[in-house]
Amino acid sequence: MEAFKTHEIIPDVVSALPEQLLHVKFGQKDVNLGNEIEPKYVKEPPEVRYNADPNSFYTLILTDPDAPSRKNPTRREWHHWLVVNIPGPKVSESEILSEYVGSAPPQGSELHRYGFLLYKQPKKLTFDEPKHSDTDGKRGNFSAEKFAKKYDKVDTLIPVILLVAQTVCVNTSMSAEWKTRGVVPDVLEEVPPHKLTVEYPDVAIEEGTVIKPFQAKSPPCVSWEYGRGCFYTLCMIDADTPCRMKPIAKEWCHWLVVNIPEDDVDAGETIAEYVGPLPPWGNGFHRYIFLLYRQPCEIDCDCEKRLTDKTAEGRTLFSIAKFAETHAIGLPVAGNFFEAAFDTHEATSSSQEMYH
Fold first, then answer.
1. Structural class in CATH, domain 172-354
2. Its domain of life (predicted)?
3. Which of 24, 98, 126, 187 could form a disulfide with 82 if both were Cys (CB 3.0 to 4.6 A apart)?
């Protein structure tokens, strides 16, 4: 239940913790406290279940406190669904005041929080409210708590559950680079929705920037727009080990940090210390890819071997997709990449076993 405070549902939407949790499911997608679900999965009304008194009536609300954005919520709350006089558990037999509208956060507004609220009515009530169809956008500046107080006989807030939906809007030119350079589909099935800011001391990385290996010898400064109180996983991989034509040892893990609080990489838990690129002679350009994942919570990585920057052991045949699946951190929310090839400047000072 701490998720209500962590994600600031308290006090942005409600003032107190709920008594119990709703069970909400969109098709095969279960809603949990703070999990991310893409808008394409929430187009239709969900299945909602709760412990109901068959002789009582209920009010159900789905509301977005982050309209148009969490940083500037001038239309808080935008209600997506409002049904009243639900007989016991039978949501389908309710009186609809506002038809269901799925989430569609505007481009650039980052993650939105969507709260489901259920109120128990003392009896069947008459509601003096305008009705909204699913094409009516006049739903902003709503307040679930004020609605409940207006009908003060709606006396018991039972549960609230948090759904965070992510808008996936990708810059066209950014998308093109990821596909032109083959990162999609060689490493990812889809282009990350946001660009990760990656800056080395004398070069800023844009999608597909070509640099010299020595320019990336030390860890870069990496930044992103973070969610308050959220944790992230950051990785850097080489998709072309030992070469792009025959990447039999891909992926080579150059850097892996988990449990990063907000955007403080130094405060994260390092699984693999940073190792700069050293592509072998004669193997052409390698693609070095940065990916950022937004974790649903802190993750336990005690089973993962810690890798120092002194050896290549344990870094080959890595799979960030498998790592993400194992630790249930979802798909990358941001990314960037550069290319680099063998450079004689590094050849005399580097061990052959570290070429990657």
1. alpha beta
2. Eukaryota
3. 98
Quick one: how many helices (H) and strands (E) in the chain?
7, 19
pLDDT digits (tens, 9 = 90+) for 277-286: 988 777 789 9
Structural contact between residues 349 and 314, judged by C-beta atoms closer than 8 angstroms: no
Q: What angle do CA 69, 74, 76 make, to 5 degrees?
A: 80
CA distances from 95 to 87, 211, 257, 281 (A): 10, 62, 50, 71
pLDDT tens per residue across span 81-128: 999 999 999 999 999 999 999 887 766 667 788 888 888 888 899 999
* Rounded Cα–Cα distance for residues 100 and 96 (Å): 9
Q: 9: part of which helix (H) or strand (E)?
A: helix 9-12
End-to-end alpha-carbon separation of the chain, Å?
Answer: 45
The DSSP symbol for 286 reads: E
Q: Within 10 A of 92 (CB to CB), how many other CB atoms are there? A: 11
Contacting residues for 53 by C-beta, under 8 A, at least 6 apart: 88, 120
Cα–Cα distance, 240 to 285 (Å, whole number): 8
Closest CA to 356 of 264, 256, 258, 244: 244
Taking the model in full, what pTM does it have?
Answer: 0.57
Q: What residue segments make up the domains of the chain, in order of their start?
A: 3-165, 172-354
Residue among 328, 305, 321 at smallest CA distance from 239: 321
Quick check: 9 and 115 in contact, CB under 8 A?
yes
Going by pLDDT thresholds of 50, 70 and 90, the confidence category of residue 295 is confident
Cα(222)–Cα(335) distance, integer angstroms: 10
- The DSSP output letter for 307 is B
CA-CA distance, 314 to 326, in Å (whole number)? Answer: 17
Measuring CA to CA, how many Å separate 185 from each of 49, 78, 134, 175, 188?
Answer: 39, 37, 37, 12, 5
